[in-house]
Amino acid sequence: MGKVTVVGSGVMGKGIAYAFAISGYEVHVQDISLENLRKAKEDIDALLDSSLEKGYLESNAYESAKKNLVFEPDLKKAAEGAELVVEAVIERMDVKIDVFKQLDEICPPETVLATNTSTMSPTEIGAQTSRPDKVIAMHFFNPVHKMKLIEVIRGLETSDTTVNFVHETAARINKTTVEVNEFPGFVTSRMNCLIGNEAMYLLMEGVASAKDIDKAMKLGLNHPMGPLELADLVGLDTRLRNMEYLHATLGEKYRPCPLLVKYVKAGRLGRKSGRGFYEYN
């Protein structure tokens, strides 16, 4: 299979790189931080080792993935010749646009440029490039190695050829797709942010404990993970940025809960900081 570049080696970037690597793609992971790249390699190696030990991966897929992963701080080296680039940087439009402008200059004209945004506009991002027909959103879900879905969001100028390519590529990495016409928050983030925000209000108002709110959603509504657990996993700073964007674009019902704002100000960002709605060792 071809070369895929993942820009950003955070939680989502690592998961996306793993999914492509175990499916036979040559995967170049790019990050401007050498420390982030070192940590990404360490975490992906640990996941590969665990998947092999538990029988989720066969030895040939394991060995292939190890060989196919390249960790590179230079964007030009990482993205040259890629058939697909997936951007997984911070959820800020200015940062994403800057990355796409660089990719547009580096990559050949046939390269598809995808953003892993959970809320933002592929139309706006694509308009900053010379190839808006090749720009699309591929919204993966966390943890990527467990979650089957990719939301495929076409921008105003995204071509049918690009959309079909992304559907076919998702199938090759054993993912299921849903196609969404662009609107802020798409399908899943609009619903998920509302549920999570309401759970935070329930906690702030003393209606129930975090543990019991999550337990009620899991056992009463069959959610695999409670909304507060999920927010901790995603990162409360990331969730706050999502809520602020949706509040600005969709209105008052997406105003972030004051408790979320307070936790982010206090540095309680969830799993990655060791404390959010729960504490983590």
TrEMBL record:
Task: Cite the 3-hydroxyacyl-CoA dehydrogenase NAD binding domain residue spans from the record.
Answer: 3-182
Could you tell me the superkingdom of the organism this chain comes from? Bacteria
Annotated GO biological processes are: fatty acid beta-oxidation
GO molecular function annotations of the record: 3-hydroxybutyryl-CoA dehydrogenase activity; NAD+ binding
User: Record keywords: Plastid included?
Assistant: no
Site feature (Important for catalytic activity) residues: 139
| Residues at which NAD(+) binds | 8-13, 31, 91, 96, 118, 142, 272
Pathway(s) annotated for this protein in UniProt: Lipid metabolism; butanoate metabolism
Q: Which residues form the 3-hydroxyacyl-CoA dehydrogenase C-terminal domain?
A: 185-280
Which UniProt keywords are listed? NAD, Oxidoreductase
Per the UniProt record, one Pfam family is 3HCDH_N
Family from the record: Belongs to the 3-hydroxyacyl-CoA dehydrogenase family.
Protein name as it appears in the record: 3-hydroxybutyryl-CoA dehydrogenase
Organism encoding this protein: Compostibacillus humi
Q: Organism classification, top ranks?
A: Bacteria, Bacillati, Bacillota, Bacilli, Bacillales
